[in-house]
Amino acid sequence: xxxxxxxxxxxxxxxxxxxxxxxxxxxxxxxxxxxxxxxxxxxxxxxxxxxxxxxxxxxxxxxxxxxxxxxxxxxxxxxxxxxxxxxxxxxxxxxxxxxxxxxxxxxxxxxxxxxxxxxxxxxxxxxxxxxxxxxxxxxxxxxxxxxxxxxxxxxxxxxxxxxxxxxxxxxxxxxxxxxxxxxxxx
Length: 186
Known about the structure:
The protein is of the alpha+beta class. The chain has helices at residues 12-35, 82-105, 122-126, 151-164, 166-172; strands spanning 47-51, 55-60, 63-67, 111-119, 138-146.
């Protein structure tokens, strides 16, 4: 049995608990930001260490996981690939923001599931074609929502989510990245 075995379709109590947690978090954040707008700025951190053939052990907060490549890309397939993890991050953020804004907009949302696909041409990764970007050329999401609301209400929710989802924003807009390299003799 995995650690996720208890996570299943929502019961009425789970939905009520989630609504209370979302409302409390919203009140708490609003209060902190009202007291000092600087509290709105967050810094997220992760650390990676190379292991195995091309795998990386990632530590983020109290969590640790391994990202790797399949054998066809020189990996040991010890974990999901970095680009799959990027898609998973997008899916996860979308779920959070759908639930948050469903609560804020008074839209009943019983269940949500999301599938993501991304197209990547390995020539960009391997340097086989300068005109091919190394990342995704396109990402597609299939969002399935269940609940009693009209289609129009769920479209309203989708638009709001896409406007406010941090990981969607990362995918859609260039983010400045600073790289500092240090080396030491072995």
